[in-house]
Design brief:
With 297 residues, the protein is α/β, with parallel strands linked by helices. The chain folds into 2 domains: 166 residues, Rossmann fold (3-Layer(aba) Sandwich), CATH 3.40.50.1100; 107 residues, Rossmann fold. It is built from 11 helices and 10 strands. The chain has a 6-stranded mixed β-sheet. It has a 4-stranded parallel β-sheet with strand order 5-4-3-6. Strand 4, helix 4 and strand 5 form a beta-alpha-beta unit.
């Protein structure tokens, strides 16, 4: 078995540090807002953005503990399942993806890619899935698939939060606010933990009823850094109906953004965050002269 380490990858070319580019848009300029894009989506086409940052230290830990298989969880459209499958292929891990709900054929694009990268897909009813972290559920899975390094849904744990701090270190420009889409809250927890005095973070929940993420963000910070921070806020107004939900208004924004800037926003996460940033700028929630960073994952 190959022994390459995630920090010194062999056979995978990572674009690190990821670029920081300024977005020129009159809709922001008229409100005195400068927007920088942290293009983490360009780190790697198969393991982009916070997916890589969350996996990096977990892959190292799995290797250190002697595991040869990664087992993780996600919905049918999970980018995390896809990225874990790719990481397994590049770093010589077997992978198992536990998918919420029943199997539907043909597979959607995300699950088809995961399967093509060697991931074994198994399905779990929604009632059991809600208990996926319980010892008896995990014991059943490891008895079925053998010893596995368990990655939580979304790859979110203390090691993942630590990995997400590194994106802040890569931003040489001064900024006031940094924004991230939130599915589990782990990325925001890591980002906020690395900010300098006076800087703030905003997380845009892509989940309907996402207020519970505030408790999750605090938990990730305690587990990863032994203390929480008060330099972040969670915005729950731009979920557009919930996770993996969209509507014509969001689709129109995505199309217009691509026409203006040549960047196609991911509709599950990035587009909702970016829509929220423009809405906040339009309503004067960013002070004139503010520099805002938007993390594209």
């Amino acid at each position: 078995m190959a022994t390459q380490r995630p920090s010194e990858p062999d056979g995978i070319s990572l674009r690190l540090p990821s670029p920081v580019v300024e977005l020129q848009d009159d809709r922001l300029r008229r409100h005195g807002v400068r927007l920088l894009l942290k293009r983490d989506d360009l780190i790697h086409p198969d393991v982009p953005g916070n997916k890589w940052r969350k996996l990096k230290f977990n892959l190292e830990e799995a290797r250190t503990q002697g595991f040869h298989c990664l087992l993780t969880f996600g919905g049918a459209y999970s980018n995390h399942l896809r990225a874990t499958a790719a990481a397994g292929r590049y770093f010589a891990f077997d992978t198992v993806g536990v998918v919420r709900g029943e199997e539907h054929l043909p597979l959607n694009e995300s699950l088809e890619y995961a399967a093509s990268a060697g991931m074994r897909l198994t399905y779990m009813d929604r009632t059991t899935y809600r208990r996926k972290a319980d010892p008896d559920v995990l014991s059943h899975l490891t008895s079925q698939f053998g010893p596995c390094y368990i990655l939580p849904e979304g790859g979110s744990n203390a090691l993942a939060a630590r990995g997400c701090t590194e994106l802040v270190d890569e931003i040489a420009e001064d900024f006031d606010i940094i924004c991230s889409a939130c599915g589990t809250g782990c990325t925001l927890a890591g980002i906020a933990a690395r900010l300098q005095q006076g800087q703030r973070a905003i997380g845009f929940s892509v989940l309907k009823g996402g207020d519970f993420l505030s408790d999750e963000i605090r938990r990730f910070q305690r587990e990863a850094f032994e203390a929480g921070t008060n330099n972040w806020t969670l915005d729950t107004d731009f979920h557009f109906g919930g996770y993996a939900k969209r509507n014509p208004e969001l689709d129109a924004f995505i199309s217009d953004f691509e026409d203006r800037h040549g960047v196609l926003l991911d509709w599950v996460y990035e587009a909702k965050m970016m829509y929220g940033i423009f809405a906040r700028a339009s309503s004067g929630q960013f002070a004139p002269g503010s520099t805002v960073v938007a993390v594209l994952c």
